Amino acid sequence: MPDRTSARRGTAIVIGGGMTGMLAAAVLADHAEVTVIERDVLPDGPAPRKGLPQARHAHLLWSGGAKAIEHLLPGVLDRLVAHGARRVPIMSGMVSKAPSGQWFRRFNHAHHVNVVCSRDLLDDTIRAEVLSRKGVTLRERTEPVALTGTAGRVTGVRVRPVGGDLGKDGNQSRDQGQDQGRNQGAEESLTADLVIDASGRGSRAPHWLAELGHPPVHERVVDAGVRYASRIYEAPASAGDNFPIVNVQADPRQPPGRGGVILPIEDGPSESGASKTRRWLVTLSGTRGGEPTGDNDDFVPFTRSLPHRVIADLLADAHPLTDVVTTRSTANIRRYYEKMTDWPAGFAVLGDAVAGYNPVYGHGLTAAAQSAVALQDVLREHGPDGPGTARRIQRAAARPVGRAWDLAVGQDIFYPGASEQPPTPLEKVFATFIDRAVDTGARNPHALRALLDVMSMERPPTRLLRPDMVLRVFFGRKLPLLDGPPLTEAERTALSA
User: Fold this and answer.
1) 30-72 pLDDT, tens per residue?
2) What pLDDT digit, counting tens, does each position of 312-322 carry?
3) Alpha-carbon distance 494 to 298, whole Å?
4) What range does the domain containing 194 cover?
5) 449 in helix, strand or coil?
């Protein structure tokens, strides 16, 4: 069918100004006048955001997510790199220990490239790109109260201003011509042809749908009880400019699961502020009974309890630049909106509002970006107010959500107390096969490329069931396992003696 972008421009509302909301706004701007509703005042540059505490921890933008973002915002990855982000080839730029204990070999002939930087830089670059687009308006310090309309069609959102400091200009919106009366606390109704809820884990969509007469949405929770602790370090001078990502993953079959990652991010100010310094963002994790604390003095000692000492050795002489920050909100929570019998026209839910994941696997950003691509595909085919558009969006977004969910839950469900529902027989069989596939990937670079196709979310998990992979898992030639982290001689100079 022809592209619908030349049709009548309608109106759209996006609830939430985070990554998912901005990408959704970029897509909608080709079809409608878009208003992004955001409860906080968003930073003007790469700075912490009040409503996103998880941003303080290590984030990986897998190649599947990087490709999706570049598809939506051509050239944005080059702008990220210009501001200090790195394109890291996987596996040559990663030293990784699998949950089941194997060290992966590093090789140069893979096409998977992760984009690595702080979450602040990533969000700021994408936010600046989207808000510069014609037809996108941001209303800050504004919170949604309820959906308007009926069970059959959502017609908009009822909102109210959020009290407190309204920012440098005293307004709740960056648009100069906004009505100052909003600051008085009165509710108002905004109408739209399409409302997208991208408000994250705290989404009120289940409650709003219930108010319109819909039955409760089915939810599933898998909570491994993970706590994260992160700290930024000045990288040792011997680490050089292209030090690899170092990732020691937790083993769910030997609780408590403890892991850690060193993520070389963009340079930042030194303590004196006189020059730039290379920085490592270090994130540690632990499940129930083995959680890291927020005490600065406990951070490096905790690294000695990980399944390998490589992170402890790398940090032994590294200089901390920040205090430790912690987060506990790490449960995997999925809402199965796509399975609801009735779904209202004019409303869809994307990103963490559909499913939030344990951040250790790094798939939340990729699932959000791929959901925005799914939104774009549906709108180009059917338009924002076409019959059945909202249900099509919900079902299309469920595909990347489901892939990320399977990857996360396939590990976390085996931690004690993670779920009231124990692993199903199918989940146990799949987990056993994944363990075999990981072991094969550690011994065979061809198998590892197939495994990376799935881990990067470039291909669905069924990629591992193709004959070439199955044959390698059960009958293929395998190299001996490595007996330690595959650091180069130059990289080993960064290790503490």
Assistant:
1) 999 999 999 999 999 998 887 777 788 898 899 999 999 999 9
2) 999 988 899 99
3) 22
4) 10-59+123-221+331-409
5) helix
The owner of tokens 């027989």 is 425
Same domain, yes or no: 209 and 279: no
Could you give the percent of the chain with pLDDT greater than 70? 93
pTM exceeds 0.85 for this model: yes
Q: How many residues does the chain have?
A: 497
The amino acid at 365:
L
CA-closest candidate to residue 238, choices 322, 316, 323, 321: 316
Give the ranges where 108-185 is alpha helix by DSSP (H). 119-131
Q: Is beta strand 355-356 parallel, antiparallel or unpaired with respect to 219-222?
A: unpaired
Select from 298, 327, 356 the last residue of a domain.
Answer: 327
Same domain, yes or no, for 340 and 303?
no
Residue type for position 161: P
Q: Distance (Å, rounded) from C-alpha 271 to C-alpha 279?
A: 12
3-class state of residue 186 by DSSP: coil
Same domain, 198 and 292: no
> What would the mean pLDDT of 227-253 be, rounded to a whole number?
91
CA distance 52 to 73: 22
Claim to verify: residue 234 and residue 378 sit in the same structural domain: no
